[in-house]
Predict the structure of DNA-binding protein.
Amino acid sequence: MDSNEISFENLPRAVVHLANEIAEIKFLVERKETTTIPPKRIPIDIEAACELIGKAKPTVYTLVRTRKIPCYKNGKKLYFFEDELLEWISQGKKKTLQEIQSEADANFKKNFRKSNGEFNQNSQR
């Protein structure tokens, strides 16, 4: 309905039209998921990186030179992101004896089934 068509005679139709429009807008707003704003990634310097990972500066420089640690270089300065350093630390996790034992058991069962199936096929020939 155009704004030109609103008159005293068609006022009830205009109100119904506006009510429908408001209901549609309300539906769209309610349906829209809340957007999460990702936190800003603020780079840290080498001193903060050393403190975060618990290593001395020369050790961090060696890790950077051998490309074992994620870093960024702008000019002569090194920059790091905290989340990347924490991910780097978590990738070096050592497995517990229980984890190693459960993996070994799973591999043994899997290989036992395979070899047992091959044995059965060979014995049928």
The chain has a mean pLDDT of 85. The radius of gyration is 33 Å.
